Amino acid sequence: MDKIKNMSLLSCLCEKTASSIAVTNPANDQVIGFIPSHDNTAIQQRIGLAKEAQKAWAKTTAKQRAEIMHRWYQLLMDNQEDLARIMTLEQGKPLAESRGEVAYGASFVQWFAEEGKRAYGETVPTPLADRRIMTIRQPVGVAAAITPWNFPIAMITRKAAPALAAGCSFIVKPAIQTPLSAFAVAELARQAGLPENLLVIVTTEDAVMVGELFCQSPDIQKISFTGSTNVGRILMRQSAESVKRVSMELGGNAPFIVFDDADINLAVKGAIASKFRNAGQTCVCANRFYVHDAVYDEFSEKFSNAVAELEIGNGLEANVTIGPLIDEKAKEKTQRLLNDAVNEGAMVSTGGHALDGQFFEPTVLTNVTHLMSIVQEEIFGPIAPVIRFNDETSLIEMANDTIYGLASYFYSRDINRVFRVAEALDYGMVGVNEGIISTEVAPFGGVKQSGIGREGASQGLDEYLNTKYICLGGM
Ligand code: ADP
């Protein structure tokens, strides 16, 4: 903490009290600081304030909102180094990745500042001569979000930026592991001139209470969630009662496919980036590798060699490329999946050990088959199972054989195959010859049980707008 220059970013910190929440560093288990806990009454009160604030905000022009958002973007980038440090301290990811996430998170603020100006309605040719028909787009009202710990800034700005640009107010409960980044981002929005109560952070260890409150509140019109499919289901069920709009970014089980005509070196580079970013703890991380028989040995060897060179350690240290897992539970799950795979016949090509603290060696498994639990489940840890395949048709069947449909990746240099496979993959996103595909200008989201709705791009704004039809009669 001593290296943070802009201490206003940490103004959320409070004294240790009976109800305060400790934030710890997953790299060494040390307490970084304490934050306040909000109870049901306090959260309800904030929802009320967000409702009031939204009325005035909706009356501003998109241009006025954009001016504030551009200042916010600039402050996020001006404070990139401090924000990255705070993120690494509470989340564990290497500093270079944290810097990248700050820039990625800020990019949504910049993008939606402009996109908010393009919330166009339509005039529609009328079928009746005495009428004129038009549509306008209006903010949904108060939008609420629940976000995860793996991208402490981006998962908030990806939702808050379109909400605010559309004219909504926004209330979010960040994951309890990573609240400092959330408060810091909100503090910069305040410094950028965002009026009070439009971007509200609430923190509590009682996630169930907040989920119920958000879903049931008649003052909230929209729920946006990023997290596990299981919790997504709960929130959708709870939202049914008040017929709320929902956006869900849920789990994934991304296939990473290497065809025999692939550029193997490029595929290895993409595999490392896609699998081991954030120690494998992202919903778009490659979860299972299908490699054609003809290039299986070459790919596995080059991939394992590259993985063996990854540097494990505290993300604040230079050269570290793999930080700790977020908590003990995550480490146990990784270990369980590894044990099961080995018992089922998988071979450890590199790595394979849990280390002290919350660290786990980046691991490559060969001799893996499609039905092993490590292939069927979302790993969310640094293990790469590599499966051999022979023909494209059965490969596509295996790739689509999952309840999930978020990201998918494949490597090929055959143009016909590129189109054929991209169209056949039952996923919301397909990376062709590229392992990192997220950007603010493209719609991020899943099909099947990976979610509903899109974030980023023009589609991301739609999630926070209602279309109103106006009929002008008696003309
Ligand atoms: P993960 O396993 O990656 O932590 P979760 O889906 O459990 O994924 O958590 C994502 C977010 O959902 C976190 O902010 C967490 O506090 C919240 N959460 C967990 N359980 C519930 C619930 N029953 N209702 C509402 N939010 C929840």
TrEMBL record:
On the tree of life, the source organism's domain of life is Bacteria
Q: Which family does it belong to?
A: Belongs to the aldehyde dehydrogenase family.
Cell membrane as a keyword? no
NCBIfam families in the cross-refs: SSADH (TIGR01780)
What name does this protein carry?
NAD-dependent succinate-semialdehyde dehydrogenase
Give one Pfam family, short name only.
Answer: Aldedh
Q: Which UniProt keywords apply?
A: Oxidoreductase
PANTHER family to which the protein is assigned, alphabetical: SUCCINATE-SEMIALDEHYDE DEHYDROGENASE, MITOCHONDRIAL
Catalytic-site annotation from UniProt: 249
Is Zinc among this UniProt entry's keywords? no
- Alphabetical list of SUPFAM superfamilies matching this protein: ALDH-like
Tell me which residues make up the Aldehyde dehydrogenase domain: 18-470
Organism of origin: Enterovibrio qingdaonensis
Kindly give the InterPro entries that the UniProt entry links to this protein: Ald_DH/histidinol_DH (IPR016161), Ald_DH_C (IPR016163), Ald_DH_CS_CYS (IPR016160), Ald_DH_CS_GLU (IPR029510), Ald_DH_N (IPR016162), Aldehyde_DH_dom (IPR015590), Aldehyde_DH_Superfamily (IPR050740), Succ_semiAld_DH (IPR010102)
